[in-house]
Design goal:
The chain is an alpha/beta fold and 215 residues long. The chain has a single domain, classed as Vaccinia Virus protein VP39 (Rossmann fold, 3-Layer(aba) Sandwich), CATH 3.40.50.150. The protein has six helices and eleven strands. The strands form two sheets. Strands 7-6-5-8-9-11-10 form a seven-stranded mixed sheet, with helices on both faces. Helix 4 packs parallel to helix 6. It is globular. 46% of the residues are buried. The structure holds S-adenosylmethionine (SAM). Its EC number is 2.1.1.-. InterPro entries: Fibrillarin, Fibrillarin_CS, SAM-dependent_MTases_sf. Keywords: Methyltransferase, RNA-binding, rRNA processing, Transferase, tRNA processing.
């Protein structure tokens, strides 16, 4: 591991052939490189992977005690890595087709709980998701990304972290991404203290990575 890296337990740098990548231990999901029990975490396929690759201080600790609520799980590319290193991982996705794939991803991951639900309606999964969640990860790529984060703040422990990927084009394709990000930050500030932001440009065009805590 590099000196300055803050990687959760269960995430490490591993060499696959000639390439070094972040990696977790688990069954492969999206055609990623593998070596024995390790699977490469491709930052071009994962905003959270990009945030870790860029050295953002996500606060993720890893380990079976850490609870995660993941919004916008799609077919499980990123949330599969999270469930490889974290504890109970609740994965919300509202599109039925990717959720079917997600169920298959959960087969080999007993701590991954797929939920077919709309992240804008947290009351529909509040009875399933435990309270005082350590980390809320959000990658919904839909309009109203700050509002979704605010509506799901109720699940977070007081010292929990929001790890948010904001896609500028999902808010407004016609506006400068920087303006969109400024608006999202302003809205987020009504319920969160933003600790760190980073453009994910090296890996994902027009995306902002945000680390925040509830306020
Ligand atoms: N996070 C995924 C990964 O890295 O593997 C990719 C997520 S993709 C960019 C965004 C996903 O969010 C889509 O699968 C979409 O169906 C889902 N989504 C969008 N709005 C949602 C909502 N309101 N509730 C739940 N899922 C939503």
């Amino acid at each position: 591991m590099r000196e300055d890296e803050r990687l959760p337990t269960g995430v490490d740098r591993h060499t696959f052939g000639d390439d070094e990548h972040l990696a977790t231990r688990g069954e492969p999901v999206y055609g990623e490189q593998t070596d024995g029990e390790w699977r490469a975490w491709n930052p071009t396929r994962s905003k959270l992977g990009a945030m870790l690759e860029l050295g953002m201080d996500t606060g993720l600790a890893g380990g079976a005690e850490e609870t995660v609520l993941y919004l916008g799980a799609a077919s499980g590319t990123t949330v599969s890595h999270v469930a490889d290193f974290a504890g109970p991982t609740y994965a919300v996705e509202f599109a039925p087709r990717p959720t079917r794939d997600l169920l298959a991803v959960a087969d080999s991951r007993p701590r991954l709980f797929p939920l077919l639900a709309d992240a804008r309606k947290p009351e529909t999964y509040a009875h399933v998701v435990e309270s005082d969640i350590d980390v809320l990860v959000q990658d919904v790529a839909t309009r109203g990304q700050a509002r979704v984060a605010l509506e799901n703040r109720r699940f977070l422990a007081d010292d929990g972290r929001l790890l948010l990927a904001v896609k500028a084009r999902s808010e407004d394709v016609t506006r400068e991404p920087g303006e969109v990000f400024a608006d999202v930050r302003e809205e987020l500030a009504t319920g969160y203290e933003v600790l760190e932001t980073r453009r994910l440009e090296d890996y994902h065009a027009d995306h902002l990575g945000v680390v925040a805590r509830p306020e």
